[in-house]
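sanity check this record:
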Amino acid sequence: MQPAQTLTQALTGFSEIAGRFDLCLCDIWGVVHNGVAAHREACEALVAMRQQGMAVVLVTNAPRPRDAIERQLAQLQVPREAWDAIVTSGDVCRSLIEQRGSEPMYMLGPDRDLPLIAGLDAPRVAPAEAHYVLCTGLFDDERETVETYAGQLDDFARRGLILICANPDLVVDRGGKIVPCAGSLALAYEQLGGQAIYAGKPHRPIYEMALELVETKRGGPIERERICAIGDAIRTDIAGANGFGATSVMVLAGIHAQDLVAQSWAERHDWFSRQSHRPDYAMPHLVW
């Protein structure tokens, strides 16, 4: 049995620990909304954080520029007062593409992600002509599976193409339905022997970009112990927070809801003990 101090601590509301932090890095999908509707109490909690002087940066693995996410939040009626800034894996991904100059690429993903490459020099080409692959997701994530792309991924791997994954999430909860994300394709690609580069959580660049935005605005550094990161996914949100040195807070009613929401805290601790990363705190939903 693990010592008590390593156990994830249960929170009733974020206000219990809010005074310890100057910056909150908050996941969007699964915490602030479910892709269909905003979570009102989560939005109210973010507004309350800012009213107490905390900066709130929404950090998402969405493979689109931040202005596209801003429009989506408005459509879902997430109040503008709930955040100071947005950083997306799409923002980080654009910098990775820019580093490759005018190399031709194949974009594996739906047209809704085209804003990700708007204004960049990299030409889109057919799979056979590509020097690398930009993966933003499945073309039709409602009907297709990772297996749909097995042959194409195998071809890319045998050719030694690098795959840039614009969304490291494996799956996402869309209105109660679990659908695969680009991260699932990237993982399959690595299992075939291919090389994948990840733009978003849990990797450091997206956290560093978020921290730099706030430190520039505030005119000074923020210590890691004064940063918390809230999310619903062990593999991305919690792993990323822990790796960055931030305090991790897990929302249970997200991607792991089936394993955690109806369970006792003893059962939840057992589940956490079997994961590769453990959150510092956990709560069913983000509430103040």
Observations:
- The chain has a mean pLDDT of 93.
- The chain has two domains: 4-89+202-283, 91-198.
- The chain has nine helices and 13 strands.
- The domain at 4-89+202-283 is CATH 3.40.50.1000 (Rossmann fold).
